[in-house]
Amino acid sequence: MPNIKSAMKRVKVSEKKNLRNRMVKSGVKTAVRKFNEQETAEQYAATTSAIDKAVAKGIIHKNAANRKKARLAKMVKA
Predict the structure, then answer these.
(1) pTM of the full structure
(2) Cα 47 to Cα 32: distance, rounded to the nearest angstrom
(3) Domains and CATH numbers, the chain
C-alpha cells in the first residue's frame, strides 16, 4: 500500500477503472457467445454494437475489434 496521498488515490481510481473495463470485456464475450449460439443478423448487429462500444471506451483496440467483427461476418455469410 502506498504512503503518498496521490498514489493512494491512483490505486483507488485504477481499481475502479479495472472493474469497469472487465465488465465491458465480459459483456463483449457474452455477446459473442450468444452470437455463436444463434447466428442471426439481429444477433450479429447486437454483437458488433457491443464491440464498437468497447472500442469507443478504449477497452479493446480498434484493429482487434475489426478482426472480431470480420470473423463474425464470415460466420454469418457461411
Answers:
(1) 0.84
(2) 6
(3) 5-77 (1.20.58.110)
Spatial CB neighbours of 20, under 8 Å, sequence gap ≥ 6: none
Beta strands in the chain (DSSP E): none
Q: Which residues contact 47 (CB under 8 A, 6 or more apart)?
A: 31, 32, 34, 35, 72
Q: Give dist(CA 63, CA 69) in Å, integer.
A: 10
Q: What is the per-residue pLDDT across 48-62, written as a single tens digit (0 to 9) for each?
A: 999 999 999 999 999
Q: How many CB atoms lie within 10 A of CB 65?
A: 20
Task: Please provide the size of the chain in residues.
Answer: 78
Q: Enter the DSSP assignment of 61.
A: -
- CA-CA distance, 70 to 26, in Å (whole number)? 20
Where does the pLDDT of residue 66 fall: very low under 50, low under 70, confident under 90, or very high at 90 and above? very high
